[in-house]
Design brief:
Enolase-like, domain 1, 11 helices, Uridine Diphospho-n-acetylenolpyruvylglucosamine Reductase, domain 2, globular, binds flavin-adenine dinucleotide, alpha+beta, Uridine Diphospho-n-acetylenolpyruvylglucosamine Reductase, domain 3, 3 domains, four-stranded antiparallel sheet, 14 strands
Length: 290
């Protein structure tokens, strides 16, 4: 690892000011699970490290019925996994966290760090996009709230400005809704070869009708992506196996997987199709029962 100067920031204002001062030569450090490996491998060599992990104000999970769920950017994966309110109200999120890496990584790694890494294989990003999440980005004298699906630009690239940090994730409440994230990986807690997160809302006056659905796939495009064509096919319709099969086929055609040691493009499309099919079915069951 190359030499760098280290600054522990005491609060968000100081962190943003330091990031602004050192610009592209600086990197924020939270849990270090991605950043330190990238520095060790010399993929990146920042001259200034701004340690934000000590900003305890950004480590929280808050829920109200009216507002929904708010998670501070420095909350660890493990806290999300173990949170009673998340298990109760947003079960798919806690369930996904259980399959994300090892307990050691989840103890250190933060939700903000995961999203800002913009790894195409992130499990958190598709899950949160399916849940309709927004993120708050705070910079020097600025604060903006953006839909998470607009946050990613390319593999390992986001819309974050140099002085900004991700301070909060917000998930709205929804009724008659349920979802699930699932992944195909070499081992259960490995990075996904293909992942799918589906969140479905039923019509309150007719529980057989799908009011809304978000189908998000990970690891198969440079950024997590929804299959809007598949969603449109199901929205407003009575959910049945034939419709689900058609939607899954369409979703698998909407992706651009790359062949690698984990499988051919065709293999990954096939896995995506099967996972989309399974997640729609399970999301519909959960929407009725959770
Ligand atoms: C062995 C291993 C297995 C893994 N398996 C999985 C997996 O199965 N699924 C999955 O989704 N992920 C997986 N990961 C990725 C892991 O979730 C991330 O490494 C972790 O969440 C990153 O968080 P961090 O706090 O450690 O970020 P850091 O490593 O500290 O930072 C990562 C990047 O984000 C930036 N950053 C950090 N926090 C902020 C912030 N609040 N605002 C702005 N920029 C910020 C940093 O500057 C850096 O560029 C794995 C990682 C490891 C090491």
């Amino acid at each position: 690892m190359d030499n760098f100067k280290y600054f522990p920031a005491k609060d968000v204002t100081e962190a943003c000011a330091l990031l602004a001062r050192y610009g592209e030569e600086a990197k924020a450090l939270s849990g270090g699970q991605s950043l330190v490996s990238m520095m060790k491998e010399k993929f990146i060599s920042p001259s200034y490290i701004i340690d934000i992990k000590g900003i305890s104000d950004l480590d929280y999970i808050r829920y109200t019925k009216d507002d929904g769920l708010r998670i501070g950017g420095l909350t660890t994966h493990r806290s999300v996994e173990k949170s009673d309110i998340i298990r109760e109200k947003f079960f798919m999120l806690a369930e996904m966290e259980y399959t994300l890496a090892s307990v050691a990584v989840r103890n250190w790694g933060t939700v903000g760090g995961n999203l800002c890494s913009a790894d195409p294989a992130s499990d958190l990003a598709p899950t949160l996009i399916a849940l309709g999440a927004q993120v708050t980005l705070t910079g020097v004298d600025t604060e903006r709230v953006v839909r998470l699906e607009e946050f990613f630009v390319d593999s390992f690239e986001t819309i974050l400005n140099e002085d900004e940090i991700l301070t909060e994730i917000h998930i709205p409440n929804a009724i008659m809704s349920g979802g699930i994230h699932t992944k195909f990986a070499r081992r259960a807690t490995d990075l996904a070869v293909v992942s799918v997160a589906t969140y479905l809302t039923l019509d309150v006056s007719n529980h057989d009708l799908c009011k809304d659905i978000r189908i998000v796939m990970g690891s198969v495009n440079p950024i997590p992506s929804r299959s809007k064509r598949a969603e449109e096919l199901i929205k407003g319709q009575k959910i049945n196996d034939v419709l689900i099969e058609k939607a899954a086929q369409i979703a698998s055609e909407d992706i651009q997987p790359t062949a690698d040691l984990n499988g051919t493009e065709e293999f990954k499309r096939d896995i995506a199709r099967v996972l989309v099919q399974r997640t729609i079915k399970e999301a519909a069951v959960r929407a009725r029962t959770l």
